[in-house]
Design brief:
about 325 residues, two-stranded antiparallel ribbon
């Protein structure tokens, strides 16, 4: 498994990461033995980045990861997150320390490698949509205090919310890493927005992050599963997946994905999923790409796709045009 440098952290992490969220569901609702087998196999495949959050299964992802990681003791890079609600705005510093301590307790660790702000960043503050001014003035200093206490090595953010707010966060220089929404249905974080395509224009966030030497962690590489080309969901998976930055509905994203099937029939890739994953890794500004898994077979397929390497340039040109 190829590794890339995670920006100024200087961590070398696998091009494919292990997403332990609720969209795939294996680490939130799967059987304990299957969870252990999946992490074991991921490490065998060369995957060394694992991503979780308190939000995933109301702490179940962290609890299950803690059990598995403490049993296996693999050499991995681990990231978790913090998400503030409206009620937490009056005690931001205390809440961030509390959230980190609770995460570490669930994970059974004394520190993580990466601690990320999980809120969407926006201009006007409200509920879990966090004003970028508040994030930079109050949240970042609190995260940095947690960092100085040795509970995380680096800090980052989830690149969701309003594009101008995300650009401000990048330009602040406060964050070491950024999660970026980037996929074949909405490639605007890495290039121009396709003419007439629905969704948010992320204004070359990957380029902007590279300029600040930030590591980039791609999320929604499969558009929440839409790029499998079907509305059917595995029983462990989240059954209702809201799009992020793409079409107004999951069904609409699936329809757009199915329009790419002629490329598969022409032999460009063995499946829509492979096509989507190899599209993402073709961008050299991507450090790693998170995929959420429901089964061990899905993990095997994702690793096999990544190990085939990026799509050919001629295919990338066809997708751009």
């Amino acid at each position: 498994m190829q590794r890339r440098r995670l920006g100024r952290t200087n961590l070398d992490i696998s091009l494919l990461g292990f997403g332990a969220g609720a969209v795939g569901g294996l680490m939130t609702k799967g059987a304990a033995l299957d969870q252990e087998r999946a992490i074991t196999r991921a490490v065998e495949l060369g995957i060394n980045y694992v991503d979780t959050a308190p939000l995933y299964g109301n702490g179940e992802s962290e609890r299950n990861l803690g059990r598995v990681l403490n049993a296996l003791k693999p050499d991995i890079v681990l990231g978790t997150k913090v998400r503030l609600k409206a009620a937490d705005r009056t005690r931001i510093g205390d809440f961030i320390v509390q959230s980190m301590d609770e995460s570490l307790q669930r994970l059974g660790r004394d520190h993580v490698d990466l601690f990320q702000l999980h809120n969407p960043l926006v201009a006007a503050d409200g509920d879990d949509r966090l004003a970028v001014d508040v994030a930079l003035a109050e949240v970042v200093p609190a995260m940095q205090r947690v960092q100085k206490a040795g509970k995380t090595r680096f800090i980052g953010l989830s690149g969701v919310g309003e594009t101008p707010a995300l650009l401000r966060a990048i330009e602040s220089g406060a964050f070491d890493t950024m999660q970026v929404v980037y996929n074949v249905l909405n490639p605007s974080a890495g290039g121009p927005m396709p003419r007439g395509a629905p969704g948010q224009d992320y204004a070359h966030l990957l380029d902007r992050s590279r300029a600040m030497d930030m590591g980039t962690i791609v999320i929604r590489a499969l558009a929440g599963g839409a790029l499998a080309g079907t509305t059917e969901r595995h029983p462990l998976a989240m059954q209702d997946v809201a799009p992020i930055g793409s079409a107004p509905s999951f069904v609409a994203d699936v329809a757009r994905a199915k329009a790419l099937e002629p490329l598969v029939k022409q032999g460009v890739a063995s499946s829509l999923t492979e096509l989507a994953l190899r599209f993402v890794i073709a961008n050299p500004d991507v450090t790693t790409m998170l995929v959420g898994y429901s089964t061990l077979d899905q993990l095997e397929q994702a690793a096999a796709a990544v190990n085939k390497g990026p799509l050919p340039e001629e295919t990338l040109l066809r997708l751009r045009t």
